[in-house]
Amino acid sequence: MEEREQAAPAWARRWWARRDTAADWALAAMVYPWSALMIAVAPAGPFGGTALQASGSMTRVLSMAALTFLVPAGVAALVLVRRTRPGWLLAASAVLMLCVGDFGTPGLALFSYAAWQEDRRRLAAWAVGLMGATAVLLGSTSAVVPGAAVTLVLMFQGMPLTVGLWVGTRRQLIANLHERAERLEREQHLLADQAITAERTRIAREMHDVVAHRVSLMVLHAGGLEVSAADERTVAAAGLIRTTGREALAELRGILGVLREEPGEAAPTAPQPVLADLARLIGEWRRAGMPVEWRVSGTPAPLPAQTERTAYRTVQEALTNAGKHAPGGAVRVELEHRPGTLAVTVDNEDPPEGPPAEPPPGSGYGLAGLRERLVLIGGTLTAGPRPGGGWRVRAVLPAPEGAAGGGGGEHVDDGEGANR
């Protein structure tokens, strides 16, 4: 229904939104001449006719003129507010019927009250009073037989009352259905949120049971090897494994805290890695035996935290893939600061002794997740084999306009030290 309304032309939507107001103005335009005609032609009510006949001729003319123009205008004004104040129209129609014998306006008043008010007892009292008085007035007229009077009452007042009751009941039913639909939609959203929370808790539990336990065992074994080994290189390697495992556990603990969202538990506040942490990352891989060359060109400038974090994750994922699939191969990391963009390129050569017989297991979603990160900030990612052998990962990230300038110099870290 809402889709059809949105697809309708603008003029049709405006008209539909103002249909109630247009109907009220149309009814007011029809009620005005009807009331004026009843006052001018048939001022024969039980009170109005006697009062007018007792007055002088000039007073009678002025009174008739005032009644003919002012009273219908007041009734038409009451028709415009019949949806919010239908009781006023009922009272005015009762006065007109008693004063000038107007038996048509009470029908509109009964319809309006039945359609827009929910007080059925008061409506029944008004209906019995108006319809009974109209029947008595019409029956007392010599020109109308009693049977015809009842027929006129049913046609002019009984039928509008019945239609008004149907309209009011239908309007209440639609409002109840709308309220029920909104309540069901809210309940569905709550159920979906509960399902999401339960699924995230399950994922966190599985990650803790599988990954955290395995990494904890790795850290413990590495610590034991560091204490018991006699070879200095073995001790250094075991220490590096233990340190890396502890950092992985710390990061995993933060991720699990975000997934669980325990009530009353504060979110992890550890700072997220940025470009300034690349030196530490590259230093860790160098200590693990990977030959990494680091090059920075252009003039570095302040970048949004999300851009720096994405650049860091790009280098991290590329180095991880190089360590898995090309162990021992040389790797070159290059950051190019250019006007409006930051380009990150990671090239790795083929391993000197061919690919490992059994590479470490991987999820297969590293580059896919990295590409999603870049798409979120408006960047691009390309990954694939190089023409001369090896593999290349290149990401182009947007930078604030004018935040970085090109040609500001070049810095190369050939592995002798870590530079920030």
Automatic annotation (TrEMBL):
It catalyses: ATP + protein L-histidine = ADP + protein N-phospho-L-histidine. Residues 353-362 have a biased composition (Pro residues). Its EC number is 2.7.13.3. Residues 308-400 form the Histidine kinase/HSP90-like ATPase domain. Residues 410-420 have a biased composition (Basic and acidic residues). It is an enzyme of class 2 (transferase). One of its GO terms (cellular component) is membrane. Keywords: ATP-binding, Kinase, Membrane, Nucleotide-binding, Phosphoprotein, Transferase, Transmembrane, Transmembrane helix, Two-component regulatory system. One of its GO terms (molecular function) is protein dimerization activity. The chain crosses the membrane at residues 25-49, 61-81, 87-111, 123-141, 147-167. InterPro entries: HATPase_C_sf, HATPase_dom, Sensor_HK_TwoCompSys, Sig_transdc_His_kin_sub3_dim/P. Pfam families: HATPase_c, HisKA_3. Residues 344-367, 381-420 are annotated as: Disordered. It comes from the Bacteria. Residues 199-262 form the Signal transduction histidine kinase subgroup 3 dimerisation and phosphoacceptor domain. This is histidine kinase. It comes from Streptomonospora mangrovi. The lineage of its organism: Bacteria, Bacillati, Actinomycetota, Actinomycetes, Streptosporangiales.
